[in-house]
Design goal:
6% of the residues lie in helices and 54% in strands. By secondary structure, it is mainly beta. The chain has one domain (14-192).
């Protein structure tokens, strides 16, 4: 474990946080049949002032990788499965006090708090085989909504150390009405002298 951040932020630097959220949504156990779920990835590159606050710039996308169903074969038929989104976020430098076993301060971590204020509603065309005649039908935004929903219902935080990759997983996150999700977070905080 590092005892201090390996670099010092200067007034001319931007803090760049690159984050990937892999989201697999399923039933919480109360759905027995007839449901499909979105699985995909939210990828975001956020730029902040070294002093913290809201992003000064960002590029964020949501990609639907698959739409598994409980009783049907399903396949995405849309030509576009990646959509732009916007994350709400707050960066707080040196805000998390890390202490040793005796309670003595060791070093400070930075904190990123993020959520989705305006959930996307992009629809996909899905091919289904459910025992009857196969059909391709719109999902009316349900897959995209599934992937975004955990970040609409809750604000999430990541504690960061400069130039260190952090990977963590949240299993069985329950959210309304009857869903659960496994979410893997991958983040890295770096310093850059310009917004790319």
């Amino acid at each position: 474990m590092p005892t201090q951040e390996p670099a010092t932020k200067s007034a001319d630097d931007f803090v760049k946080i690159s984050m990937t959220l892999d989201v697999a949504v399923g039933s919480d156990g109360s759905i027995s049949q007839g449901a499909c779920f979105g699985q995909g990835t939210i990828a975001s590159v956020l730029y902040f002032s070294h002093q913290g606050g809201n992003p000064v710039s960002q590029i964020s996308t949501l990609t639907v990788n698959s739409v598994p169903c409980l009783d049907c074969y399903s396949e995405i038929r849309s030509s576009t499965t990646q959509f732009p989104i916007e994350l709400s976020a707050v960066y707080s430098p040196h805000s998390v006090d890390i202490r040793d076993a005796e309670g003595n301060p060791e070093f400070m971590k930075d904190e990123l708090r993020f959520w989705i204020s305006s959930p996307p509603v992009n629809s996909l065309d899905i091919y289904y085989e459910c025992g009857g005649d196969p059909a391709t039908l719109p999902d009316y935004g349900s897959a995209v909504s599934n992937i975004a929903a955990p970040f609409v219902f809750e604000q999430w935080t990541q504690d960061l150390v400069l130039n260190e990759v952090k990977v963590s997983t949240r299993k069985d996150y329950i959210f309304p009405p009857t869903y659960k999700a496994d979410i893997t977070f991958s983040t890295i905080e770096t310093l850059v002298d310009a917004i790319e």
